[in-house]
Write a structure and sequence with these properties.
The protein is 23% helix and 32% strand. The chain is built from three helices and eight strands; from the N terminus they run βαβββαβαβββ. The chain is elongated and about 65 Å long.
């Protein structure tokens, strides 16, 4: 392997609107100046940023990089401390402008999840692990 993933940049059509969403609705703290085309957020672990599709196309020389996408190509997932926090966070962020995609539900893989979208339509999963069920031993 060459190295590790250090930065995830979400390509969007409207950087200021999406930056305001991640800052004001989801509570991410902007790291540095957010007035330009590139906005990076303070985040533990992998860095997270927003960048306009049109500029990626300019730098790569591939006009299709600027085209609006169809469907999802990435999903961001935000881990919460407890399953009840998923319900609370979903209610809070949708009340503050996040687009509801799918309300909280228990998934067969042992997590409680809910899905929202940012102003550009990117899906964000809110999730928490369900407590492990303790099986009783009736062989006493």
């Amino acid at each position: 392997m060459l190295g590790r993933i250090d930065l995830i940049t979400l390509l969007v059509d409207d950087v200021p609107t999406c930056a305001a969403f991640y800052r004001d609705v989801l509570g991410f703290r902007v790291a540095g100046d957010a007035s330009g085309d590139y906005v990076e957020f303070a985040n533990d672990g992998v860095r997270f940023a927003l960048y306009p599709r049109r500029l990626l196309a300019q730098f790569t020389g591939n006009p299709s990089d600027a085209a609006s996408r169809v469907g999802q190509v990435v999903e961001l997932a935000i881990r919460l401390a407890h399953p009840t926090a998923v319900d609370q966070a979903y209610e809070e962020v949708t009340a503050n402008g996040a687009k509801p995609v799918a309300g909280p539900s228990d998934m067969p893989w042992g997590q409680r999840t809910a899905f929202i979208a940012d102003p550009d339509g990117n899906v964000i999963e809110l999730f928490a692990d369900q407590p492990k069920k303790v099986e009783s031993d009736d062989t006493v």
